[in-house]
């Protein structure tokens, strides 16, 4: 199966047992699945963005610093995967297409200011005609509201793009603060009807469940 | 004044008197204004996109073909501007920042699939801390509805980002079909409160009016 | 067989049924033939060159605009060919050699001002030690004179490089106006005795005939 | 004065008041001094290197991850310096020479596995024929022994390259663990007799003292 | 005056007093003239080409090796010129245009297989709209025949492009063996009516004479 | 076996029978061994460095000229090896890793000023986790002193890194004058315990002996 896996920045946080776990998991997928893995930025990205914002640097350049951290995280994946990964990190869609044609796992980070690595993952999924896009976040899936702020929030097993757009419509896009999916990601998922699952990546086994089409997290449904 | 000018693809259409007119106008601005000019794709972009879509090529790659046409249009501007323009076309935000630092006019096209050159222009405006972003389209400004489809549509002199988002919320994002502003452009304009004017670029004098802060087209107002 | 196919710009003209036909044909060649396909510029290249020349831009830069259109045409081929094509367009001979080593079809456009994509195709043929170079033009082959201007022109089945040089010696090299073969192409064909056929590419089946060594168009013979 | 300033990774540590202080200081130097600033990696580099080493990644690739962090730190400097800095980070000596010719401050990180950013700074000093190379570390200067391990260590006001080589001869070169100067840095300093000062960069005013040729830290003397 | 100077490979031959002489001369021109200097390959290029040809390497790749030597020669010029030269060597026409806009001397070598550095110099002259193109060879100018082979050869003070084409029509284009001007150079000179002088560069003072429009070598005249 | 072969610059000297011999030998190794071949600079590098030094060019830029010659030598190897070699020359460690993953022979030259191509070869060996690093020099191996200067010098069959460091400790690092191993090479060999043999490459059969683990030259032993 051709799939895109977005790994949230938390996977690369300082005490980092998770990145090694994911490297092991991804190696097991080789042969069966052909993957693009998109790395998020996490706390280190936020630290650089905050340092930059404090100095009055424009938002788009703060975004760029965050993107550099996501590429650093992608590089750690590439090095850990060794011969199973394509050794370069794509920085545009042409490169992604080119590197993916090698048959190896391609790891990448952000591409451009103004949108999240979720949007990057959606564009990647469109480019490789992915059969599955898994967004491995640090929450169980899509809730009717932000579960960190609202205790009445209920997790949804399935959600339409329209409904999800509504739920997320108040999300803030200042650099580093995107959540779950940004509007650009949603529009791409919608225009190419990309099969998408949002799940909790803190347990790597959830990813195994997703590629086996077992019920996990929240599935985005298309009409 | 630091400003970003988006020139719609119609400026570069085959019978092309407009591109030469704009080159002349932009040369006159040198000294007074420091500009980034973003070129749209127009009918040639649409022709390539259609040819590609007919062959079943993924949407993101159709977008890429359109982007190549926008860069070709930008190159025509650069060649026409001669020594007044930076001789390279930036293909990412780092290059834009770098080339703009030369003090010359920077011309560019699209950057990435999934969003319009309007979003590119907004990100460029954010990056250079532009005092003005002019979107030179082929309509008079923002209407309460699409004036090509609805005869009751009324042109607005001013519009808030929120109101404009609402008006444009049904826009189609299949490659080459963006209108006026796409959601990413709007979010960037909003987060950095970029002073923005949408006007009719079929009359180049409208651009002169905009940089003189005369009333023309539709102004986006921030709270 | 290792071969270089030059597709004249007419293949990519706006109503474009031909590009899809050629994509289909080239896919069928995979396995049997290993190809470099060089795209010409055609009417869109001429339109950009004319726009540039009108603005007084130097000839070499007009050539460069035409080259960008040939690369755009090559990109359309690459996207249409999908996994059968190498995903990048070479812009110099080192890249050509590198990309061809992938075993995939390599599509490319022009390389440098001052000579035609026919010369590019000849250099490509030399670089890959091609067994055949097919120049798919919009005429039946080489005539004793320009058939569009002289009704007494007779088509030749075979022609020596010396004779062809003579026939073409009055060709104009202003950007975008090359015909059949330019002097540089001829000198390369001569120095490396490249087996070459010039044929009418408006019928894609002529290409099939050429790779089967059937009699078609005009063959360039070496002593 | 043409000078190279090496800023140890501690300048970019998470609570980071220092990077903003240095940005302010460096802006004040513009006009009087023409600078190359080389950023170290610090704790974030060490965290990535450790994560990589845990996964059994070769030392040279661990070094590369550390280099990416140094470039990220350099980027933060560039963004903070705004128009005073050249907007690109050089990744080889040709680029350094090229970017320095702009007359702006050039910020850079590491270049290659196997040696420290101190060696990079020494090569940069040689390339621009620097009149001063300041190594801003987190200790007061060169001691007769490692002051963190040996309480009898005495700070030296001046030291010859030969003596310093001896003192540092037991330094470990596993990625991220270089101290003060590595052997390559020393050999470059020696062959081109580069005027060098090692000082405590935790107080940015020490840098001001060094460029005024006031007594601070440890000066490397040449015969 | 904007001018292009082609320095034959003999300028860079092993005992090399000439390169230092030319560096001195070119520095003196700064302020008065804005130059592109194109370096030839000379004996070292021929040595590499011969080694390659002996191993049966295709002609176009032999050409490429020769081109690398011309760029090495150009680099020696750049390093010798220091701050007076642009620090990068252009490898295509876009880069030439870009680097020339810096106002500094641009040094370059070959660009592409199949033609000489004389053709490169002609294209460069066209690109920068040069007022003079000086080809510094190791002969006094154009003779009615090859003076090294025919003792009756007479030097011409002026020659038309047509006549020169005739004289050179038997030149061999195997890699590294071009003489004076190749056909592509001649066609470029003709199409853009580039004022051109061919002179003996073994005496650098001849270059001084040429830029002062004094009578020296052979002048190519246009109708 | 994965191995790195360093070929001293003498292999590429003007009368050059050796490069063709090595190309033949390396082709025979394909299938059995996966190789990185690092080319030295030799007399041509020294000639360019001397010319540069005479003009007062900084040492690091003299080094860069020497590096360009090593890359030219590597290119000759690549062209001679044809389909057995990766067609591009890596210029940094990321590219080396990337090109080596192709399964083809990778040829390269120097990377950065300040150290020899021996250090490059050591870093390459570390990067690919080489089982053997062969340094093919123009002497029989490591002597107790420089055999060209001291007739009492005795060749060693084995030597520890510590002892070798001592022997070489007086080596001069002015550009182009490195011998056998420079300190950086030694430190890399030591930190990753790279199995290393120094032998006389003037007889290519010595290389065959080394890859068969036969006794030849001097072996570096690790504790």
Describe this structure in words.
Six copies of one chain form a homohexamer. Chain A has one domain: 3-Layer(aba) Sandwich (Carbamate kinase). Chain A is α/β, with parallel strands linked by helices. In chain A, helix 1 crosses helix 3, helix 2 packs antiparallel against helix 3 and helix 5 runs parallel beside helix 7. Chain A is built from eight helices and seven strands. In chain A, 41% of the residues lie in helices and 15% in strands. Chain A has a seven-stranded mixed beta sheet with strand order 3-2-1-4-6-7-5, with helices on both faces. In chain A, strand 1, helix 1 and strand 2 form a beta-alpha-beta unit. Chains in contact: A-B, A-C, A-D, A-F, B-C, B-D, B-E, C-E, C-F, D-E, D-F, E-F. The interface between A and B is medium-sized, with 29 and 29 residues.
Note the main attributes of this structure:
homohexamer; 223 residues; alpha/beta; Carbamate kinase; globular
Largest interface, with Cβ-Cβ < 8 Å?
A-B, 29 and 29 residues
Counting copies of identical and different chains, the oligomeric state is homohexamer
Low-confidence stretches of chain A: 172-178
Proportion of residues in extended strands of chain A:
5-15%
CATH hierarchy class name of chain A: Alpha Beta
């Amino acid at each position: 199966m051709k799939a895109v896996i977005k790994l949230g920045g938390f996977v690369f946080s300082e005490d980092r047992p998770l990145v090694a776990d994911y490297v092991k998991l991804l190696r097991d997928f080789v042969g069966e699945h052909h993957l693009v893995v998109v790395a998020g930025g996490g706390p280190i990205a936020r630290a650089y963005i905050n340092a930059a914002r404090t100095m009055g640097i424009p938002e788009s350049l703060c975004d760029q610093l965050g993107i550099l951290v996501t590429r650093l995280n992608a590089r750690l994946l590439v090095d850990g995967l060794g011969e199973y990964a394509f050794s370069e990190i794509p920085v545009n869609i042409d490169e992604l297409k080119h590197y993916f044609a090698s048959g190896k796992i391609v790891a990448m980070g952000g591409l451009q200011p103004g949108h999240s690595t979720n949007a990057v993952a959606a564009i990647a999924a469109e480019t490789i005609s992915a059969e599955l896009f898994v967004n491995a976040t640090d929450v169980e899936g899509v809730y009717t509201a932000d579960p960190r702020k609202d205790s009445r929030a209920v997790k949804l097993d399935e959600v339409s793009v329209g409904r999800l757009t509504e739920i997320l419509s108040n999300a803030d896009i200042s650099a580093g603060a995107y959540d779950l999916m940004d509007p650009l990601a949603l529009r791409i998922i919608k225009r190419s009807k990309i099969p998408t699952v949002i799940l909790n990546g803190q347990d790597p086994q959830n990813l195994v469940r997703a590629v086996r089409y077992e019920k996990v997290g929240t599935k985005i449904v298309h009409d």
